[in-house]
Write a structure and sequence with these properties.
Shape: globular
Number of strands: 16
Distance between the termini: 27 Å
Strand content: 25-35%
Order of helices and strands: HEEEHHEEEEEHHEHEHEHEHEHHEHEHE
Largest sheet: 7 strands, mixed
Helix content: 25-40%
Number of helices: 13
Radius of gyration: 20 Å
Length: 354
Amino acid sequence: MRIPTRIASNQSRRCYSTCRAVLLPSFGGPEVLQLHPNVQVPPLKPNEVLVRSRAVSINPLDTRMRAGYGRSLFEPLLPIILGRDVSGEVAAVGSSVRSVSIGQEVFGALHPTAVRGTYTDHAILPEDEITPKPSSLSHVEASAIPFAALTAWRALKSTARITEGQRILVVGGGGAVGFAAIQFAVATGCSVATTCGSQSIERILAAGAEQAVDYIAEDVEVAIKGKFDAVLDTIGVPETERMGINFLKRGGHYMTLQGEAASLADRFGLAIGLPAAKVVELQKQIRYRYSHGIEYSWTYMRADIEGLIEIRKLCEAGKLKIPVDKTYPITQVREAHEAKDKKLIPGKVVLEFD
């Protein structure tokens, strides 16, 4: 018989007063990461869930934050815990939580500005940032999906609102966000083209893309024909921005992951940098709307429980999966970050908890 949620929550909160966690006390290389055995577990708010972590994936945001990206926001709050994705079991719930219960396997992702991340064996997430884990996936497989998939979901579903029969271009389809976007578009009934490295072509075509162009070996602007309804640019350099916008139909959407809000805030401080970033984005929106007749936007991951539920359904249907290239135990978090920094492992890396 399942223990009533409220009683189980109160008991669990008494049991989990401390946990292991990887702390970031200062910005720098992988050597600054510190695994501590006794880090305080804060009391749960009414809408929060305590998750016993089984696996957490490393995202590019993690390595960039470790190196100092977002320091204007995070430096005053050091030490912080990195990590966004998690897969594990519910250990305790806040008083208002109803969608999950003690012992249930769940997966999810924290929003980009969370200070207490998931590199801990007891992660805390709001109820609207987790959902039951697809039973067909292991914890390692599930942990690789939420943050990247929600980033792609926000771009294609919330911003561009793609529909069946449209043509979608993903610039950089070999990464986790790009690969998730390809699978979303295919599942929606869209025709998909992408650019990628040669090592990703076979996997991308198997996922349903109609064309995968090796951006090193081929001239992308010659190889890809026609116009597109939406372009998701996961690379976001001036050359890919120019190319992506030129590939769009009038009325189409160009979305880049490389917005300038954090970099401008780091350079000029929050008070000046964030308003300046909004001005930069607005100027580009106006310019491209008048010069090309398209919509331009910076896209970021945001919590979206409806999107996360749809992601779970696609996973369960076998229509969404992000491959994991290598796993490390949490005790080797420095080695894992070093491997990502040196680009020794091109795909997803996951940290496992014993």
